[in-house]
C-alpha cells in the first residue's frame, strides 16, 4: 500500500470500529436498564414496599436478626475457605477428585522427569468395572488451577464412565514443575501413560482420551505424535485455533483473545516467569479468568453465598477448593504455550516439532475425534474449537480420503467451566458421548454434527443420539460470520509480539533475572491478591478466630426469613442492580477493548508483507474433481479386492440425506462382530480409509463405480464369500423389520445385475487398497 491507501484504510477501520463501538455501548445501556427495571418491578421490591415493611418494628427487627446471622455465617464460610486453602497449600495441593484412586505411574520417576502422574480411579461401592471394556484416560487442564475438575463430583466425566463399566484413568500434575521440564517432555510422558494403560488392558480396545480445555490440545498433541496407541479422542472446550471468535456487531463476545495484543504479546509471560525465579505463577492465569466476569468474581458468588447462608456453604467450599489452588509452570512451558498457541497460533502449521523433530500434524491421527464446545463459552468459543479443522484439512474430500471421522457437538448456553464441571452436562452430553464411543469407529469417514434429543417416558427422561453429516465448507461458513477476516489483525499481533519478546530478552531479561531469587519469588507468590484473599481471612488472622464459635451458636438458634419477605426482596433487588451495573461495566470495557484492538492492529496490517495468506487455511479449490484426493480415488477405481468391494457397496446402498441414529450404528457394530469371518480383516483406521476413498468414487463417478464393481471381485472365492454374507444378512431377524427405500432397492438390483456377469480380468499390476493401506 502507498501512503494514500494506508490513510484510506485507517479511515475505513476507524469508521467500522466506531460504528460497532456505538452499538455495543447502546446495547450495554439497554441491558442495564432492562435488568434494573425488572429488579424493581415487583411491589415488594419497589421503594414504597420496602419502607412499609421497615415501618413495622417487628418486621424490621426480624430482618435485622436474619441479616446479621447470615453475615456471620457468610464470614465463617470465608474463614473456612481460607483454612482449606492454607491446609491444601501445606499438603502440596492434592487433586480435588471425588473418587478414591491409586498411582499407576509417576512421571517424576521417568528418564526425563515431569510433574505428572497417571492415576487409576477406584470404582465406588455398587459400581462394577469390566477390564475388557475400553479404558478412559482423562487429562485435566493445567491452566493455573489444579487437577481433578473432571471428576470432582459423582455426576462428572469420571462418574459417567465408571457407571458405564469402563476402567477410568486420570492424568494429574503436581504443584511444582520438575527442573527443566518442557511441554514436549510432558507430551512424551503422556505417551508412556497411554502405553501403560494399553499394557494393563491388552484385551480391550485402544483407550479413549478425554481432554478438557488445555488438556484438549495436549491430548491432540499426544494423538498426533503417537497415533497407533490412542483410541477415540474427545476434547472439551479446547482452544485449538486461538485467533478465532468472529467479530460481530451485537453483544460483545470473546474478549480474551484480544488480551495478547493489548499486552504487547508474550514478553509479559516471560517477565512474570523471570520474577518468579524461572517459574510462572498460575494465579495470574486465574486472575485473567476472574477479570472476564467481574460481576460474578466480585459480587454474585459472594452475594449468593450470603443470601443462601444456610445451604450454600458446602457447594461454595467444594468449588473454591479447586478454584483457589494455584499451580506453577516453568518458564519454558509458559513461553512455549504463548508463542506457539495463544499468540503465534502455529501449533498445527508444522512449524512446531515434537521431541523426535517431527512437526505435529493432526492429519496423522487415525482415531475418531469428538469436539464439544458451547455458544455460551467466551473463553473458548466454538470458532477456536473448530477452526483448526478448516486449517488442517483442505476439504471435506480430504477428510474422507484419509478415513477421518470428526464429530462436533454444540451446547447453546453453558459457560466454559460448565462444559466439564456441570452435573447436568455430565448426565446428558458426557453420558451420551460415552455411549457413542462404544461404536464410533464404525462411523463412515466425514464431518458430523451430533444431536441429542430428549424424550420423556414413564421411566424418566431418555436421550436419543443421531449424527448429521456436514461439509467442511458449510461448517466454516456457519461459524465464521466474516469469513475469518477478523483474524487478520492477529498476524500483526504475532509480529509485534516477536519484536517485543526479543527486545525484552535483550535489554531487560538479564537485569530481572539477576534481581530475582527464590525468596523474592516466593514473596510475590504469597502476596498475590488471589492468595491473599484466602489466607488473610483464615485462622492465621486473629480477628477471624471468634467466627467459628459464633457461627455454631447461630446454627443452633437460627431465625431465618423466607425469600419472599419484602425486605429480603428489597435486598435482592439492590443486589441485582449492583450486578447489572458490573455487567454493564464489563460490556463497556470489552467494547472499548475490542475497538482499541482493531484500531491498532487492523491498521498495522497495512505495514506487514502481503505475500502470504492471513491464516494457515489452504486456498479453496472451485472444482472438487480437481482435488488431489478425488483424482487419486478415481484413478484407483478398478483397483482393490474384497474389502474395497464391500466398502463400495456400502457407499452405494447408504441412505442419502438422512441422519444416522446411534441405534443404527450400534446395530452395525453387532453385525460386524457376528459376521466377522465373512468381513475383511482390517484395523478400524484402515477400514475407514478404504471406506472414505470408495465414497469419493461413488460420489464423483457413480456409474463407473457400479460398472467396475466386478473388477474388485474377480476371485470366485470372494464372490462366494459375498453371496454367503448377503444370504445371512437377508435372514437376520434384526434386519427383517427394516425395509430398504426405493432408491436402495433399485441400487441393490443394479448391483446384482452387474455382479451376475463374469468380471473382466483385473488390470495387471493392480494392488488392493487394503494391502496398500496396511
From TrEMBL:
This is Poly(3-hydroxybutyrate) depolymerase. The lineage of its organism: Bacteria, Pseudomonadati, Pseudomonadota, Betaproteobacteria, Burkholderiales. PANTHER family: POLY(3-HYDROXYALKANOATE) POLYMERASE SUBUNIT PHAC. Pfam families: DUF3141. Gene3D superfamilies: alpha/beta hydrolase (3.40.50.1820). Signal peptide: none annotated.
Amino acid at each position: 500500500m502507498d501512503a494514500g491507501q494506508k490513510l484510506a484504510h485507517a479511515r475505513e477501520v476507524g469508521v467500522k470500529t466506531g460504528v460497532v463501538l456505538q452499538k455495543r455501548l447502546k446495547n450495554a445501556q439497554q441491558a442495564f436498564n432492562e435488568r434494573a427495571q425488572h429488579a424493581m418491578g415487583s411491589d415488594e421490591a419497589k421503594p414504597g414496599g420496602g419502607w412499609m415493611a421497615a415501618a413495622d418494628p417487628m418486621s424490621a427487627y426480624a430482618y435485622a436478626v436474619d441479616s446479621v446471622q447470615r453475615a456471620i455465617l457468610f464470614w465463617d464460610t470465608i474463614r473456612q475457605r481460607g483454612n482449606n486453602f492454607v491446609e491444601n497449600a501445606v499438603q502440596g495441593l492434592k487433586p480435588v477428585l471425588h473418587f478414591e484412586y491409586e498411582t499407576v505411574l509417576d512421571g517424576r520417576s521417568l528418564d526425563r522427569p515431569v510433574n505428572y502422574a497417571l492415576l487409576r480411579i477406584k470404582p465406588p461401592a455398587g459400581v462394577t468395572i469390566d477390564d475388557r471394556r475400553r479404558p478412559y484416560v482423562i487429562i485435566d487442564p493445567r491452566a493455573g488451577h489444579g487437577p481433578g475438575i473432571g471428576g470432582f463430583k459423582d455426576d462428572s466425566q469420571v462418574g459417567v464412565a465408571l457407571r458405564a463399566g469402563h476402567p477410568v484413568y486420570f492424568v494429574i500434575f503436581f504443584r511444582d514443575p520438575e527442573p527443566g521440564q518442557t511441554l514436549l517432555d510432558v507430551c512424551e510422558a503422556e505417551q508412556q501413560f497411554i502405553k501403560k494403560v494399553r499394557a494393563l488392558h491388552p484385551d480391550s480396545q485402544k483407550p479413549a482420551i478425554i481432554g478438557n480445555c488445555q488438556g484438549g490440545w495436549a491430548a491432540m498433541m499426544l494423538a498426533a505424535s503417537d497415533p497407533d496407541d490412542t483410541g477415540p479422542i474427545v476434547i472439551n472446550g479446547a482452544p485449538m485455533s486461538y485467533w478465532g471468535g468472529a467479530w460481530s456487531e451485537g453483544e460483545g463476545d470473546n474478549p480474551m483473545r484480544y488480551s495478547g495484543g493489548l499486552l504487547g504479546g508474550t514478553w509479559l509471560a516471560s517477565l512474570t516467569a523471570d520474577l518468579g525465579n524461572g517459574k510462572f505463577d498460575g494465579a495470574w492465569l486465574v486472575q485473567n479468568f476472574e477479570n472476564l466476569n467481574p460481576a460474578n468474581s466480585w459480587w454474585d458468588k459472594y452475594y449468593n453465598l450470603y443470601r443462601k447462608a444456610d445451604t450454600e456453604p458446602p457447594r461454595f467450599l467444594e468449588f473454591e477448593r479447586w478454584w483457589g489452588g494455584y499451580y506453577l509452570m516453568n518458564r519454558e512451558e509458559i513461553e512455549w504455550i504463548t508463542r506457539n498457541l495463544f499468540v503465534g497460533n502455529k501449533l498445527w502449521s508444522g512449524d512446531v516439532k515434537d521431541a523426535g523433530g517431527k512437526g505435529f500434524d493432526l492429519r496423522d491421527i487415525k482415531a475418531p475425534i469428538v469436539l464439544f464446545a458451547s455458544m455460551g463459552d467466551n473463553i473458548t468459543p466454538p470458532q477456536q474449537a473448530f477452526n483448526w479443522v478448516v486449517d488442517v484439512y483442505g476439504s471435506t474430500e480430504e477428510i474422507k480420503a484419509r478415513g477421518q471421522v470428526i464429530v462436533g457437538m454444540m451446547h447453546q448456553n453453558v459457560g466454559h467451566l460448565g462444559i466439564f464441571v456441570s452435573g447436568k452436562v455430565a448426565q446428558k452430553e458426557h453420558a451420551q458421548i460415552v455411549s457413542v464411543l462404544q461404536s464410533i469407529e464404525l462411523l463412515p469417514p466425514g464431518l458430523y454434527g451430533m444431536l441429542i434429543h430428549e424424550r420423556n417416558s414413564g421411566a424418566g427422561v431418555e436421550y436419543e443420539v443421531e449424527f448429521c453429516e456436514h461439509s467442511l465448507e458449510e461448517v466454516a461458513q456457519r461459524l465464521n460470520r466474516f469469513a475469518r477476516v477478523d483474524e487478520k489483525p492477529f498476524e500483526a499481533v504475532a509480529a509485534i509480539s516477536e519484536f517485543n519478546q526479543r527486545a525484552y530478552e535483550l535489554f531487560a531479561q538479564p537485569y530481572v533475572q539477576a534481581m530475582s531469587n527464590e525468596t523474592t519469588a516466593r514473596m510475590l507468590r504469597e502476596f498475590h491478591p488471589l492468595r491473599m484473599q484466602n489466607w488473610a481471612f483464615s485462622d492465621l488472622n486473629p480477628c477471624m478466630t471468634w467466627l467459628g464459635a459464633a457461627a455454631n451458636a447461630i446454627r443452633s438458634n437460627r431465625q431465618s426469613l423466607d425469600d419472599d419477605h419484602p425486605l429480603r426482596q428489597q435486598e435482592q433487588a439492590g443486589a441485582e442492580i449492583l450486578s447489572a451495573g458490573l455487567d454493564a461495566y464489563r460490556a463497556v470495557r470489552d467494547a472499548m477493548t475490542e475497538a482499541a484492538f482493531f484500531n491498532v492492529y487492523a491498521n498495522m496490517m497495512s505495514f506487514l508483507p502481503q505475500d502470504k495468506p492471513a491464516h494457515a487455511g489452504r486456498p479453496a479449490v472451485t472444482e472438487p474433481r480437481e482435488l488431489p484426493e478425488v483424482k487419486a480415488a478415481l484413478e484407483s477405481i478398478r483397483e482393490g479386492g474384497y474389502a474395497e468391494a464391500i466398502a463400495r457397496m456400502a457407499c452405494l446402498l447408504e441412505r442419502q440425506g438422512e441422519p444416522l441414529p446411534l441405534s443404527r450404528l450400534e446395530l452395525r457394530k453387532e453385525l460386524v462382530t457376528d459376521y466377522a469371518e465373512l468381513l475383511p480383516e482390517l484395523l478400524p483406521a484402515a477400514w475407514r480409509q478404504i471406506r472414505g476413498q470408495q465414497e469419493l468414487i461413488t460420489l464423483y463417478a457413480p456409474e463407473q463405480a457400479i460398472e467396475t464393481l466386478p473388477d474388485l471381485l474377480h476371485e470366485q472365492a470372494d464372490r462366494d464369500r459375498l453371496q454367503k454374507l448377503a444370504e445371512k444378512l437377508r435372514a437376520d431377524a434384526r434386519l427383517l423389520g427394516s425395509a430398504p427405500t426405493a432408491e436402495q432397492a433399485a441400487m441393490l438390483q443394479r448391483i446384482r445385475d452387474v455382479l451376475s456377469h463374469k468380471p473382466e480380468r483385473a488390470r495387471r499390476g493392480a494392488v488392493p487398497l487394503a494391502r496398500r493401506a496396511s
